[in-house]
Fold this sequence. Notes:
The complex is a heterodimer of chains A (613) and B (420). Chain A is mostly helical. Among the domains of chain A are: 442-483, no CATH class; 486-608, Serine Threonine Protein Phosphatase 5, Tetratricopeptide repeat (Alpha Horseshoe). Chain A has helices at residues 2-20, 23-37, 41-54, 59-71, 75-88, 93-105, 109-122, 127-139, 143-152, 162-171, 175-187, 193-203, 210-226, 231-243, 247-261, 266-277, 281-294, 301-320, 327-350, 357-371, 375-388, 394-408, 412-424, 430-446, 450-461, 469-482, 488-499, 503-515, 522-535, 539-552, 559-573, 577-590, 597-608. Chain A is elongated and about 115 Å long. Chain B has 420 residues and is of the alpha+beta class. Chain B folds into two domains: 2-106, 2-Layer Sandwich (Alpha-Beta Plaits), CATH 3.30.70; 112-413, Class I glutamine amidotransferase (GATase) domain (Rossmann fold, 3-Layer(aba) Sandwich). Chain B has 14 helices and 16 strands. In chain B, the strands form two sheets. In chain B, strands 6, 7, 8, 9, 10, 11, 12, 13, 14, 15 and 16 form an eleven-stranded mixed beta sheet that branches. In chain B, strands 4-1-3-2-5 form a five-stranded antiparallel beta sheet, sandwiched between helices. In chain B, α2 (32-44) packs antiparallel against α3 (66-75) and α9 (200-216) crosses α10. The chains are: A mainly alpha (613), B alpha+beta (420). At the A-B interface, α32 and α33 of A face α3, α8 and α11 of B.
Amino acid sequence: MxxxxxxxxxxxxxxxxxFSQDQNDLSLFQLAQQYxxxxxxxxxxxxxxxxxxxxxDYFEFYDSYRKILEYSKKYxxxxxxxxxxxxxxxxxxxxxxxxxxIKFRLGEENLAREKIQEAIKIANNNINVYRVIAASLLEAxxxxxxxxxxxxxxxxxxxxxxxxxxxxxxFREKYEDAMLEYLKLLDNNSNxxxxxxxxxxxxxxxxxxxxxxxxxxxVTKNKLxxxxxNLSYYYLLSWLYNEQKNYKDSFEMxxxxxxxxxxxxxxxxxxxxxAYRDKSYDIAFKAYQYIIDNFKNSGVYLLARxxxxxxxxxxxxxxxxxxxxxxxxxxxxxxxxSRIIKIYEDFLKEFPNNQYSxxxxxxxxxxxxxxxxxxxKASTYFNNVLKKYYLQNYSxxxxxxxxxxxxxxxxxxxxxxxxxxxxxxxNASNDQKEYAKFKVAELLYxxxxxxxxxxxxxxITSNLSSDYTNDALILINFIQNNQSNKLLTVFSEAExxxxxKKLPEALELFKSIVESGNSSLSEDAFFKIISIQRKLKxxxxxxxxxxxxxxxxxxxxxxxxxxxQCAQIYYKDLNDVKNALTYYEKILVxxxxxxxxxxxxxxxxxxxxxxxx
Amino acid sequence: MKKILIILILVYSQLLSQQKILIPMDLKQTDHxxxxxxxxFTLKNGMDVEWLLNYxxxxxxxxxxxxxxxxxxxxGVLFEPISGAESAEIISLISKPDNNMDVVKLEKAPxxxxxxxxxxxxxxxxxxxxxxxxxxxxxxxxxxEVLQGKLKDYDWLHLHHEDFTGQYGKFxxxxxxxxxxxxxxNINEAEAKKNGFKKVSELKKxxxxxxxxxxxxGGFMFAMCSATDTYDIALxxxxxxxxxxxxxxxxxxxxxxxKLDYSKCLAFENFTIDRDPFRYEYSDIDVPPNDMAxxxxxxxxxFTLFEFSAKYDPVPTMLTQCHVNILRGFLxxxxxxxxxLIKKSVIILAQGNGVEDVKYIHGNFGRGTFTFYGGHDPEDxxxxxxxxxxxxxxxxxxxxxxxxLNNILxxxxxxxxxxx
Lengths: 613, 420
């Protein structure tokens, strides 16, 4: 009811005010506004002047006239009417500020500053007056003057306008001062998470700027050295270090937070998990290790042990990636992965049958399979996962591995059975099911059951969103192109051996295809032979095979591919740059439309550098 | 007569004996953009290049050299080794009066300067993208260097899509709080202060005047996108203030439109400046206006290159060498130029769909020339702030980019004394 009465009162007052003006004046005022909007400043000014002169005390007319005078840079006339207005209303600080801005524009800076001080005094040091004045100065792009006003406001409230000041300082690229301002938000709220989150959101606008980030870190470090009890500084510094990808120093901050907060390892654990997710394995390893050494009774101890095991495996993986074939490293690999297996097994012993056990058993099995080639031991672990945790995440992955093991052991019925189990497994994702289906089709192809294989492959190709559609199309195409060739069974069997890593057996079969004479499969067989010879490090043999192809099939559309193979064997395998260059340049000259041309250009440029006359 | 005959026989026998590299620039060419890089590479290594205007899309003819041939192969540029007799035949065909073709000898690799701010990245700008892709060297210059007269060291100047009006691209409404905008303002204000100017707009006017002197003394200037109209606006606004307070802290001169001096402009006249400080448009030169660009249809946006007489108008012919005559349009802060606002002395090289829509212009000023090309990126129809840079490996035969590179080779066509 009160609100309604107020509304009625305001409406009545407004209407009275409207009618109190001459109707003609109002129309003229609207016309002037229209002129102003359409850029006809001169016309608008004339009308505003007329209206102002008729009623100089009416604010709307006065203010519009003042504004257009300022817009027209008629600062003398604008000053006159402001002073006239102020004669009757000496305490109207807004008009004093307008006068001050005119003085700034006229270059009378001292006078302008005096006027601003006058306005502040009149408004009785009200903090909002500072805000209004600074806003006017900012609008006129007097950033440094606005900054002074904000600072002056601190005589009333020492923490006033932190964000406004920091913003101007960032705008002026004074990052150190800006950061010092921002840190004031934390000064009096040392343990206030909301305040820390708010500061983070403000800083997010700037930390993409590397200069700002570096300076922010230094400033926070200095502040921390002055006040070691403010936990927010530690959190902030740690976050800034993370943004800089400096996990080492970030970890130091978390250690300090843990010491001070005594969170029983939770803080360090959060840090370790973040570092693991960001693949900063070294530092994640240290963090998990720290929890294991210091917080045996913590609620995160079990998870830290699991994290420690995972990260240890990742660290060993980075050490030996792709070096399984290197005999010199073989003993070292066995020793390192045995250590990892022990870490996982210790975990299983200490924490039997929990929600993480399936993952741990799977990981042990995977090491035996991938790193030790110990198919029986690997099977034991994968079967354990199936037996104990059939409905958990790692059961489908274990089935995939068991299928691969069965295939390597040439137990094809078992392989089919495992892939079919995946197709019916309730936890299998669509992607896993498509994979299993493709593997079944591939198996049928290996066995020479081409029609059945094509049938399954066609099912895959009907799903255009599948990752295996392209592979399926390629295999269908290959089978259909060669189905009439009686050597296809030999070829598919050779491919089976190759997939089973039985390289010598595969090599013999591919050679038999080549030796049997010219057939549509011979060219493919040549490439297969070279690939296997390179895997077996028979580089001279591989070159002989390649040259035989070049001599036998000079018109082959794959000749550039074979030349590229020769060049790569010389360059990558034998480190013979001179001979490699001969082949690369041959491709450049004779096969300018080869699909390898861009790669060849890059390599030749890499070898020869820039050509100068 | 006898002497002439002997000379002709000698020249002919010389031609016959010398093998050549022909770089065709028609649809057979595998990488048109890098072909310009080969011409530049050849000139830089002290060999001449003959530019065969209108012959197979504006092909290049070079004395056979194994290193040039290998460089072509490495850069993926299609070339044809031809005999001296074949090249003589081509030259003879070109010389026939009824063929609109000519041979222009390129003698010297032009020294190239690109006017860019210190925080510039090569992918901000189509010209630098083209130069980088074609492997053509360039130096960067900014306001201080221009004001210090360093342009005299260069044959060719490219204006990055800068705003010479001092309004920071008129990005205020949407981007005034972004780091890059703030940095841009600070860099420009610092540069103005360093050079003794109170306002950035005053600094830019002085820079525009220095560039004009450089052209008058024989320089070649090429501008794209907003560097075209803002350059002329800055020249016209020499005695007035067109910037609103959001850009320079004080209101514009209310009478600025009347005070514009079009006689100072290179290319445009009688244009009207946009008064709205928040509108992403400088004047009515731009076609279509930026707020209408959203309605533009890329599938229907094309522009056509005009044909000039190669033998009598070699300069416009060089600038319009292309393997196609109709090119896909592309927008920019300034997309095309309104025909009715272009000075009569300016040559129109390409026109868009509409009667008023001119894409590409060229003119002379003093002993130099200027060329304006509307739009931002010929292979990115509507380029927005934060868009990924164009990968020219995917546009090796871009006709739109080719026009840019014509401009770079054109200063090599004749030796011109530079004022020292």
